TrEMBL record:
Classification via Pfam families: F-box-like
Signal sequence extent: none
Domain of life: Eukaryota
Identification of the protein by name: F-box domain-containing protein
Region ranges (Disordered): 401-425
Native organism: Didymosphaeria variabile
């Protein structure tokens, strides 16, 4: 059992009873981090009161991850950082998550006891973040009244120079989309690697020419239920030096309706072309989108994973016009997934089967296709084509006990019994 010294104990007694005191700072930090995980933050706070050294080292753990669930807590913490600014450098992760109902004029205008921040300075909440010089992860989910204040952190010289990951979501009245223009300079952050935007809106204007930054380190971009114009997206995607992952999702019936977004998958594939030499994964989960053109993605030489909702988003729906171009899969594609069922377009069914049969020519590294249950007739043909051409077919929602034993895979390496059963039916 460890016994810590009392404040009135002499130094010789301290050295005899404080067994932790002989450890170097690096090991003490590991001990404190373990205490924070296995015990409670209160336990670590008690340890921090035992000496100045413990207080300094425990701060690095106590303030490594900070969660603000109320604006009052945020303001109070701002005052704490004002008195002890070095604590700001100990913070690595911050989450701001409080609903609009808690950010009323009363909550913002009321004076926080002991705080010197003027009630009218609403941007004091966001200004607190600028003190966190070593912040690496920032998760914003707050009312839109803070939109401009937080956005100013990204506009100009970067206070958050170590930021690697950022999520932005502002709660708007009537669940409207928030204007990305106020936070557009997050795309200019030179060190940011992962960015997630939720329910943002962005028009076709892109960056102003005078404010266009140099190349950035962005690797992953996720657009969750956003209303993003494809031309505007094309403009901001010229900034990352080597984007690797792109994800865009929409509800089946977006609310409110999308005003800036295109209704064609092909337009967004075109917007991604500036990153065609680095992208490895593309996911466009937008059930309401169609495609007026067959996708041509031969330029995307590093894409290994492609996920879409419908097979006709890849081939374009049937029309009276002749198809002058065949689908061009990424040459290094390994996995193709459709989130919705196959067999909704007879002409596309034939094109899909022809694509599988020409697998060795159009995508010789193509290993897996993932689909969901749908029309039995087309699934039976797709299974046969995949088996014949050495393509593994995974059917989500159609696994039985036999499939589970084979890791849920149906194709050339497994699922022969299931194919036989289907044929016998």
């Amino acid at each position: 059992m460890l016994v810590f010294p009392d404040e009135d104990g002499d130094k010789s007694a301290d050295s005899q009873h404080d067994r932790l005191g002989v450890l170097p700072d690096e090991l003490l930090l590991q001990v404190f981090e373990t205490l924070a995980k296995l015990g409670t933050r209160k336990d670590l706070c008690n340890v921090s009161r035992l000496s100045k050294r413990y207080h300094r080292l425990s701060d690095a753990t106590l303030y490594k991850q900070v969660l603000f669930q109320t604006p009052e807590l945020h303001l109070t913490f701002s005052e704490s950082l004002g008195r002890r600014p070095r604590r700001g450098s100990a913070i690595n992760e911050v989450t701001l998550a409080y609903p609009a109902s808690e950010l009323s004029q009363l909550a913002l205008g009321a004076h926080v006891h002991g705080s010197h921040i003027h009630p009218s300075r609403f941007d004091g909440l966001s200004r607190t973040l600028s003190i966190m010089s070593n912040l690496e992860k920032l998760d914003i989910a707050v009312p839109s009244v803070l939109l401009h204040g937080v956005g100013s952190l990204f506009n100009g010289p970067f206070d958050l120079s170590c930021l690697k990951s950022c999520k932005l979501f502002y709660q708007c009245p009537n669940d409207e989309y928030w204007d990305l223009r106020e936070n557009i300079h997050i795309f200019a952050h030179p060190e940011l690697e992962e960015l997630t935007l939720r329910r943002a809106r962005f028009d076709e204007q892109g960056f102003n020419f005078l404010e266009r930054p140099h190349e950035t380190a962005l690797k992953k971009l996720h657009l969750i239920e956003c209303d993003i114009n494809d031309d505007g997206l094309s403009d901001i995607l010229e900034l990352p030096e080597a984007l690797e992952e792109f994800v865009m999702t929409h509800q089946e019936e977006p609310e409110p309706e999308l005003e800036e977004s295109s209704d064609s998958v092909a337009d967004y594939i075109q917007a991604l072309r500036s990153q065609s030499e680095s992208l490895q994964s593309i996911t466009i989960d937008s059930p309401s989108m169609t495609s007026r053109k067959v996708l041509r993605m031969r330029e995307f030489g590093t894409v290994k994973t492609l996920r879409l909702n419908w097979d006709y988003q890849l081939f374009a729906k049937s029309s009276k016009k002749p198809r002058l171009h065949s689908v061009g899969l990424p040459p290094e594609l390994e996995m193709l997934e459709f989130f919705n069922e196959l067999g909704t377009d007879a002409e596309v069914n034939d094109l899909l089967l022809a694509l599988i049969e020409s697998k060795s020519i159009v995508a010789r590294h193509w290993k897996t296709m993932v689909v969901v249950e749908g029309d039995d007739a087309i699934l039976r043909q797709v299974k046969a084509a995949c088996k014949e051409n050495g393509l593994q077919l995974d059917i989500i929602g159609a696994f039985d006990e036999t499939d589970s034993e084979n890791d849920g895979s149906i194709g050339s390496d497994g699922g022969d019994d299931k194919d036989t059963d289907d044929d016998s039916e």
